[in-house]
Specification:
Blueprint: E1 8-9, H1 14-31, H2 33-49, E2 51-52, E3 63-65, E4 70-80, E5 85-94, E6 101-103, E7 108-116, H3 128-131, E8 134-140, E9 146-153, E10 160-162, E11 169-170, E12 175-179, E13 183-189, E14 194-195, E15 202-203, E16 209-212
Antiparallel strand pairs: 1-2, 3-16, 4-5, 4-15, 5-13, 6-12, 7-8, 7-11, 8-9, 9-13, 10-12, 14-16
């Protein structure tokens, strides 16, 4: 499961896609195109939402890759709430038109996983990091550096999916989870990391570099 490939359409989307397609076909057949058009629009939206394309993975010993598609909404020094350390945080906000497959930012081993049920306020708000449903991974790199990667549900998102556990190994760019319908990913890095993105940047999972350790 950890080495899940990229089959163009994410496996999480197949139940939604098949269901929407069958309903659209049925309404088209029994009621005609006029009634079915809105349903086909919804089906196309589901198709684009659950796309899961393969991505090139940059090579470099200390690179931190973007774990999600979206827009950089925060780059600042904060306290990592999971490891209780001063850290640099980079937040990537995903809207409903972004790819929502989440990929590991670094090579390393998972020391711990934290899951917190919570609220569903807009993921672009600051309080989403502390109040929303979230799932955090503590990844220890081969060089001994700590990276915390947090999936955060949003206003529309209602399900965080994570397929790894403590003790598992991750390779950069490896698919490890998915968030349905709009969300955010926070990455906490050591203070010595060199950040490679700025506020407002549009980034792609695995393809773009967030930082260098």
């Amino acid at each position: 499961m950890n080495n899940y490939p990229h089959p163009i359409i994410a496996r999480e989307g197949w139940p939604f896609l098949v269901g929407a397609t069958l309903v659209s076909i049925a309404v088209t057949y029994y009621a005609g195109w006029l009634w079915a058009v809105p349903l086909w629009v919804i089906t196309l939206f589901i198709l684009q939402f659950f796309r899961d394309p393969a991505r090139p993975i940059p090579q470099g010993k200390n690179l931190v890759l973007c774990p999600a598609d979206g827009r950089v909404i925060k780059v600042e020094r904060v306290t990592d709430p999971y490891l209780k350390r001063d850290a640099l945080m980079v937040s990537v906000f995903m809207n409903v038109f972004n790819v929502h497959s989440n990929r590991s930012p670094v090579d390393g081993a998972i020391n711990q996983v934290w899951y917190y049920p919570g609220r569903f306020v807009n993921a672009s708000f600051d309080k989403a990091s502390a109040e929303n449903e979230r799932n955090a991974l503590w990844i220890k790199t081969a060089s001994g550096q700590d990276v915390t990667c947090v999936q955060i549900a949003g206003l529309v998102a209602r399900r965080i999916l994570c397929y790894v556990k403590a003790g598992d190994g991750l390779t950069r760019g490896q698919r490890y989870g998915f968030i349905r319908f709009g969300s955010r990913v926070d990455v906490y890095l050591p203070l010595t990391a060199h950040i490679k993105v700025t506020l407002g940047d549009k980034v792609s999972a695995s393809k773009d570099i967030l930082a260098e350790l």
